[in-house]
Amino acid sequence: MNFDYSDDQKFLKSEARKFLDARATAKVNRAVLDDPTKSYDPDLWKAVAEMGWLGTAIPEAHGGLGLGHVELCAIAEELGRVVAPIPFASTVYFFAEALMLAGSDAQKADLLPKIAAGELIGCFATSEGPGAVTADRLSCTVDGGKLSGVKIPVTDGDIAHKAVVLASEGGKPSLFIVDLAGVARETLKTLDPSRSAAKLTFASAPAERLGGVGEGIALMEAVFDRAAVLIAFEQVGGADKCLEMAKEYALGRYAFGRTIAGYQAIKHKLADIYVKNELARSNAYYGAWALNTSASELPIAASAARIAGSEAFWFAAKENVQTHGGMGFTWAVDCHLYYRRAKQLGLVAGASRSWKERLVSQLERRNAA
Amino acid sequence: MDFNDTTEEAAFRSEARTWLEANAPKVNLSGKPEAELLKLAKAWQAKKAEARYACITWPKALGGRGGTPIQQVIFSQEEGKVGAPRGFFDIGLGMCIPTLMAFSDDATKERFVGPAVRGEEIWCQLFSEPSAGSDVAGLRTKAVRDGDDWVINGQKVWTSGAHYCDFGIVLVRTDPDVPKHKGLTMFWIDMKDPGVTVKPIHQMSGGSNFNEVYFENVRVTDSQRLGPVGDGWKVALVTLMNERLAVGGATGPNYPELLSLARSTPSGDSSALEDAAFREKLADWYVQAEGLKLTRFRSITALSRGQTPGPEASIGKIVSANQLQAMSTEAMEVLDQYGIISDPELAPLEAGFQQSVMWSAGLRIAGGTDEILKNIIAERVLGLPGDVRVDKDVAFKDMPTGL
Ligand SMILES: Cc1cc2nc3c(=O)[nH]c(=O)nc-3n(C[C@H](O)[C@H](O)[C@H](O)COP(=O)(O)OP(=O)(O)OC[C@H]3O[C@@H](n4cnc5c(N)ncnc54)[C@H](O)[C@@H]3O)c2cc1C
Asked: Is the peptide bond before A153 cis (omega within 30 degrees of 0)?
């Protein structure tokens, strides 16, 4: 048994940390957060592309590094730690994964090298309004290769070059690749402006099918499974950082004549965060294993990774604010960057409610078999 | 990241499996009285020892196999599958004998380790007292020097297995004039000594697994001392460190049993399994239970890389004991009015959930309470300060006491 990163993966991770600690400081996040005209940090994006990270799991034949998904998970964990303000998740976890999962040889050959080179920002457009999207409620349609309808919210929809869009053609849901050049887009006000989101209005936009006819919902779920595992690593990275912040603050803050880190209410709170983080990390590792080996357990593993990751990051983020007292509630202190990101990541691949339902349905099937 | 055995591990697993298939007793243990279980467990332990599958990591000269921690894990996994009788030797072999091995002379080791490995003699841990549990260093049982001997008087409590144990390690006060941690000494004692009285305690769960133990002028020789006089706390820490390794998680029904129960219990027009609120909780417990299992895999990985697991192992007991209590409570909710029935003939799963509701309350206390374990994580893993202490520099005899 070897249920941990390998030495090479640990090295990659520590190099990533060094790089991001220098390049992706809270100031970089805030430059995007504080400026309504900025949707991401192009310099950081370029630097990350130069590191080759965008192509971590893309095969060498398509211009990537050809490493595995575990390496990508290691990088995701580090990106989560620094709440990086770049369209990494949209482009790599969703768009590239969708292509690798369902793309034709021609589609892969065309687009994957551009992703790896940092020339193409991608996004994944499924939601159309309040509530999770289903085949019955899907209103975007494709007719004669042209897509029409509204998608909202689409993370990075305002800056992406292309989108993978869920729409129905002849009553059958499928995925489509759409170039966003001529598509109307409007940046939305969201909880985490360091990760921008948009409303996309398609009016007969040229659309090229990705994957089989009528496979849209199944493919969307498969992409969500893959993204959920990768996002779980961002969540674990963010949650661990919150624990460190809370600990450091508690040790230095004095009340009633001693450090607040000595009060059990604080000690036990931080112990609770630690326990949740460790369980989330373990579930994420299992997801990484399932993703990397394309194991049949992936849907269950991804659900568990997502549920544990969302819970751990949210708990750590909110209790980190609490541990900081009034300081924690200020714009100036970084707690809210994590508080915002915890919610963004916790919803972007679907809410925990839906994942829990999905998980139990699968357990039911397994238990019946 | 992979779950596969290395070549050597796979070879050991198949060897262990073959041996277990040929040798494990094929008996149904459920509902058997303790005395009978004890007999079966002793016989099984002897068989394991003979084949060197007992205490796999211990040196061969002491009756072990000279194997690796990972081999021990593999064997336990395989042993778990054949349903062999176990549980009677965990405290002795997991905590007492390792303490003895660390602090006694060769003759003592020679005398005791072998019989313990073979299951011929069972050991108990005599630490807790009526006035000293979490704060075990506050104990009052005292040993007074008399020539080459020591004379022990006092009372222990919550001693698991004392009623069938042959020997024990006992932590006592040898100097009340110094602060409490400094006046303790550890001894091993013969539980059959006429001065030792064992009185079973009736637990809220109905059974009597633990006891009160009284010492009345129990005379021990100085050679029974483990570690220097006044160094008992250091010795106890070695025992307690081993406790964290020995006490894994709670055992009892888990999410698959709860899922089956809900599936077979009607609710509204369908089954309780269709209830959205139930499903959400089930998902959480699955994620938690899997998280624990996988966290153990991470510890095993650390073990096989030669690292020793630290206090982070405390996670297992906090999470599993609380989860067992919560899941069993939910099982009762699923059963509705019928949930109160704890008759194994009538209640599903031979009343496994009803038993767990009662037993899990004790699990949250045994081997370190939830609160103490959180303190351990906060202090030893996260490096936060200890609690404010008013007892550090006060002589034991001057310390305030309550109940
Ligand atoms: C099933 C079972 C088997 C056991 N087997 C053995 C055995 O074989 N040998 C043995 O020696 N002992 C054994 N014990 C005893 C066990 O170790 C103690 O019960 C346990 O350590 C708690 O001590 P206590 O009962 O004195 O409770 P107390 O220490 O009095 O605790 C009462 C409450 O106060 C809380 N508390 C105490 N101190 C603090 C603090 N500093 N901060 C916050 N909260 C605190 C506790 O968490 C608890 O909620 C067993 C107990 C059980 C339930």
From this structure: yes
Q: Does B229 touch chain A (CB under 8 A)?
A: no
CB spacing of A261 vs B283 below 8 angstroms: no
Q: Which CATH number fits the domain A122-214, given the four candidates 3.30.465.10, 3.90.1150.10, 3.40.50.150, 2.40.110.10?
A: 2.40.110.10
Mutate to test the interface with B, among A275, A276, A283, A362 (most CBs of B within 10 A): A275
- Asked if the Cβ–Cβ distance from A268 to B375 is below 8 Å, we say yes
**Residues of B with a known catalytic role:** 243
Q: Is the reported ipTM for this assembly greater than 0.95? A: no
Cα dist from B400 to A284, B180, B232, B395, whole Å: 49, 12, 22, 11
- Contact A163/A204 with Cβ under 8 angstroms? no
pTM of the model: 0.94
Chain A: nearest CA to B373, how far in angstroms?
Answer: 9
| pLDDT in the model for residue A158 | 97
Q: How distant is the Cα of A163 from the closest Cα of chain B, in angstroms?
A: 32
Side chain identity at residue A154, one-letter code = V
Residue B81's Cβ-count burial label (10 Å; 0-12, 13-18, 19+) is exposed
Kindly give the number of the ligand 1 atom that is closest to the alpha carbon of B156. Answer: 11
Nearest atom (ligand 1) to Cα of B362? 53
Q: What is the pLDDT of residue B249?
A: 63
Q: With H, G, I as helix, E, B as strand and everything else as coil, classify residue B173.
A: strand
Cα B230 to ligand 1 centre (Å): 23
CATH architecture designation of domain B123-245 = Beta Barrel (2.40)
Query: For B249-295, what is each residue's pLDDT tens digit?
Result: 667 899 999 999 999 999 999 999 999 999 999 999 999 999 999 99
Q: How far is CA A169 from the centre of its chain?
A: 28
Characterize B30-51 residue by residue with b for buried, 16 or more Cβ atoms within 10 angstroms of its Cβ, and e for exposed: eeeeeeebbebbbebbebbbee
Residues A101-133: pLDDT tens digits? 999 999 999 999 999 999 999 999 999 999 999
CB contacts of B297 in chain A (<8 Å) are 1, 3, 282
For A7-89+103-116, which CATH class? Answer: mainly alpha
| Residue from B381, B384, B387 whose CB has the most chain A CBs within 10 Å, to mutate | B384
d(CA A122, CA A117): 13
